[in-house]
Amino acid sequence: MPVLLSSLLASTDEHPDAIRIDDRATSWVELRRLAGAVADDLRGVDRVAIDATASLHTVVGVVGALLAGSAVIPLPPDAGPMEREHILRDSAPGALLVPADAERREAPDGLPTIPIDLARRSDTNHPEPDPAGIALILYTSGTTGAPKGVMLSRRAITACLDGLAAAWQWTPDDLLVHGLPLFHVHGLVLGVLGPLRVGSRLHHVGQPRPQRYAAAAGSLYFGVPTIWSRIAADEPSARALRAARLLVSGSAALPATVFADLTRLTGHQIVERYGMTETLITVSATADGPRRPGAVGLPLPGVRTRVVDEQGRSMPTDGVAMGELEVCGPTLFDGYLNRPDADAAARTTDGWFRTGDVATIGPDGWHRIVGRAATDLIKSGGYRIGAGEVEDALLAHPGVREAAVVGTPHPDLGQQVTAYVVGDALDEADLIEFVARQLSTHKRPRQVRLVEALPRNALGKVQKGRLRAD
Ligand code: MCA
Ligand code: AMP
């Protein structure tokens, strides 16, 4: 039976710097005992939410829940009230984990709070939960409506991490460094549960600034393309990464220019890997294999992929034919919480997941992600943002009559959120602030264009392609 946090549970390592985050550090043994105290309090709680700040509290809370077998719902710490309320209503957690030393605050909807107390320890031996049980429920945007809860089983996470450990030759000798948020797959699953499963050390640098990556002197580094492009633009920091073993990029397409600049400055050809919240990481370049700019590598162990045309027919793997990428295998999610309709729509009758990404597969099995089938999902700084969710937030403004949101190219973030708005007596800065009061801050439009009317086709549908070309 696979044990999700196998290395953490087996570790006798008392080195005080095994995990460093938020200016605090602890050993593996201490982390297990700190989390054990949280797990003791969580007995009988099926689902628990946590404000997922980049802190040791979050790590202890999440690990405690995983020891107890409670499914964790990490809340983006900057989620606006509307987004937070939606997540809590939809996921109905039995409790909210809060730092014991935080000011006592009103628990939303009368939710009981359970303290994460870094002064408490427990050596209770919690029985290993069922591997089929749900470990995490991660909220992620679709093209329309509010975010959906992606249910990830312990088994799926284990399969993903084992695949990545093999592909990247990730071992207990590594020191992983990153500064990613802890409420998404990249920062939380790969960036925290990865070291706990593999047994490598972890240094989370808080804000992912180039100088902090450089100063951490790690062997293995994770980042989204925006982080890597900022590092490539900071020569001394980039050069400091020469001593690393492996640099890994994911969550969005890495520009070929950044790949080339990093190769020149760091001496490393960066490893690209591809995944989704719903599928975890499915395709990657390997530590001992080639790296190719603009390409994301080969399927991980147990993962199968295919590209299909609009009728769902498999297309040739000739590196030229572009189709929607479909994936299946042990890393797939268990469904969207409370949304069997959305789940059914996202899967084929033979059990493959429709990623919505357009890809080519070469004769040698190498994948290139060339775009998205639907244009209403925006990737900005590696964050996935649903155009519909931002449009709904804008439409709640009393002066807004119509709104259309698109992703437009941005040199640092890949894409930026651009909103076209029709209405009366509107102010651009006020609209950006209005969205920020409801949703996570990265969902704010960067640009607001006030227009007389939105371009529509004969059926009245907004022509977003024309807006983007504008
Ligand atoms: C931002 N700012 C704004 C606006 N937007 N100001 C006015 N109007 C706006 N619309 C402000 C910010 O508040 C900030 O101010 C300043 O501008 C800079 O913000 P930004 O450019 O966003 O940069 P940043 O804050 O440095 O963030 C860049 C980042 C971040 C670190 C790359 O986007 C990030 O952490 N991305 C990671 C996302 C991620 O983990 N995705 C993984 C999903 P101030 O400086 O005052 O605060 S999982 C996934 O994708 C799959 C599974 C996979 O494959 O991994
Ligand atoms: P999320 O659900 O936030 O995990 O975002 C998943 C999406 O990020 C995928 O559907 C892709 O569009 C995009 N993505 C992730 N990794 C890559 C990559 N290496 N290259 C291009 N796009 C990527």
Describe the structure.
There is one protein chain. This protein is α/β, with parallel strands linked by helices and 470 residues long. Helix 2 crosses helix 3, helix 5 packs across helix 6 and helix 8 crosses helix 10. The protein is globular, with a radius of gyration of 22 Å. Methylmalonyl-coenzyme A binds next to helix 6, helix 8 and strand 13.
Give keywords.
globular; 4-stranded parallel sheet; 9-stranded mixed sheet; 29% helix; 14 helices; alpha/beta; binds methylmalonyl-coenzyme A; 470 residues; GMP Synthetase, Chain A, domain 3; binds adenosine monophosphate
CATH architecture of the domain at 377-469: 2-Layer Sandwich
Report the average pLDDT across residues: 95
Distance between the termini: 55 Å
Please give the CATH class of the domain at 377-469. Answer: Alpha Beta
Write the layout of secondary structure elements.
Layout: H1 6-10, E1 19-21, E2 24-26, H2 28-41, E3 47-51, H3 56-68, E4 71-75, H4 81-91, E5 95-99, E6 113-116, E7 134-140, E8 148-153, H5 154-168, E9 175-178, H6 185-198, E10 201-204, H7 210-215, E11 220-223, H8 225-232, H9 235-240, E12 246-249, H10 256-266, E13 271-276, E14 280-284, E15 298-299, E16 304-308, E17 323-328, H11 340-346, E18 353-361, E19 367-372, E20 377-380, E21 383-386, H12 387-395, E22 400-410, E23 414-423, H13 428-436, E24 447-450, H14 464-469
Parallel strand pairs: 1-10, 3-4, 3-5, 5-6, 9-10, 9-11, 11-12, 12-13, 23-24
Antiparallel strand pairs: 1-2, 7-8, 13-14, 14-15, 16-17, 17-18, 18-19, 20-21, 22-23
Helix pairs in contact: 2-3, 5-6, 8-10
This protein binds methylmalonyl-coenzyme A and adenosine monophosphate.
Adenosine monophosphate binds at residues 140, 185, 250-253, 272, 274-277, 296, 355, 357, 369, 372, 379, 384.
